[in-house]
What does this fold into?
Amino acid sequence: MDHKTILKKIKLCIQLMELHDENPFKIRSYQSALNSLERGDADIMEISESELSKIPGVGKSILEAIVSLKETETFSTLDELIEKTPEGILEVLQIKGLGPKKVKTLWEELGITSTHELMEACQSGKVAKIKGFGEKTQETIIQNLEFKASNAGKWLYADVEENIESLTSELQKSLNSSEITVVGDFARKMEIIASAEWLIGTSDISQAKSQFKAIEAFELDKSLSSPFVWRGKVKDLDLNFGIHFSDLNNYPSKKYALSASAEHLKSLVDEKETIAEKLAKNGFKNDEEFFSQINLQFIPVEMREGYDEVSLAKEQKIPTLLEEKDLKGILHNHSTYSDGKHSLKQMAEYCKELGYEYLGISDHSRTASYAGGLEIEKVQKQHEEIDQLNKELAPFKIFKGIESDILGDGSLDYPEDVLKSFDFIVSSVHSILNMDIKRATKRLLTAIENPYTTILGHPTGRLLLRREGYPIDHKTIIDACAKNKVVIEINANPWRLDLDWRWVRYAMDQGVMLSINPDAHEMEGYADMKYGVLVGRKGGLTKEMTLNALSLKEIQEYFDHKKG
Ligand SMILES: [Zn+2]
Ligand SMILES: [Zn+2]
It folds into this structure.
């Protein structure tokens, strides 16, 4: 049990209490305890009972629940609630947009106790007829159910990274006479992972197979397996795996083939042969040797997607890709002025401590009241604090920014004299996410054409595996950014990774710079920049085209120039 799982279980308990109409005071007290645990810095697993009891809102019953969770992974109130809830309801509760109240109504009025029954009821129009639901809610439920079904078993890269790495070392330990490597989408740093794949190269396949069988973490599914590929699920994780076996002779070519996308393998190297056909000839020890044999510039693994990388390589145009160490500063971050967890000072000092030259703070603007958006007086107060901190922390510098909401009509969230006072502005959409492509594109265009927009924040608003972004015409948006000298963010939060890497090359070709922004709401959030770099590299991003790879002096000049 870890901190996050404990919070999840408490949250589930609250949902079930609401579903079963428990005492509202009890529900409220659980909710307020959960809120302060979520806001706090302390790791529940690491603090003592007496420290826990000092956290605001943590009363006797929640304290008992946490102690019990730590020891037994559950607690009696939760057990009792689960006991009287049909299993499928727990899944229905996970559907976005359906709170416990609505789930309860569906259960009582239509007898719905599973996602399957819910889909049927939506398709026959029954859900729309319930009071408080309507056609639009029904349509949203259908979309969310379909989205969920299409994402079943899939994981964010960042969420399985540690698991895959530790499973790799376990494989290496157990099969110590074999070559082992991660292949598949993970090797290519795909943002979403549907299956963890490994290739085992060995001179004795049957021995490797029996060694593999002895590893507890993998649950083999014989019906999905063949003599050369074993498939199943990683135990305790809803994660599919594939283990490929190869003799040592074919290992280098298999490693290449299993790491690249199918489209890449079909790309023609010359008039006659594709990458796959060249691989089949098999006379090489590693990727470098392969590329030199076929007379092609080396293509990094993460770029082997089947876009235009082979043509680029033919013209020697594969660039030197951005690396994390090229980043000189961190833009787009939140502090306690809006909905961040750490103070401006903490955010700045930690950024400096990590060796960066500058920080761009961009709390939410005033319309984002749900996220503590800044009224004008608060902006001024923050600017005074920044001036003070800049004296203390020099030569390190904090840039005055804001994440301005893009309002429904595309305008920014402050009058001009306030907009003028910032060094840079990240303009982002946070509300009215259901516009059609024409309106959503027009809204962004208006924001891009606003001379105060420095960076377009998370351009589609997508949350991977959770919600699709609003539709936009990417080419039109990118072209407009080129024309108006607006930088596009690659929001590095693993849930976002937005701009999608598939558009990075087009943006660079139009002369648009990208910025790797962690959108950090706490100090630890800076670490997410890694995921932005990974997807940026997939898109072919270079240091030269990355805004926050500029040095302090360079970016200062850039901001000054943009402001005119
Ligand atoms: Zn945002
Ligand atoms: Zn943000």
Observations:
- The mean pLDDT is 95.
- The pocket of zinc ion (ligand 1) is lined by residues 403, 428, 430, 457-458 (CB under 6 Å).
- The longest helix spans residues 157-174.
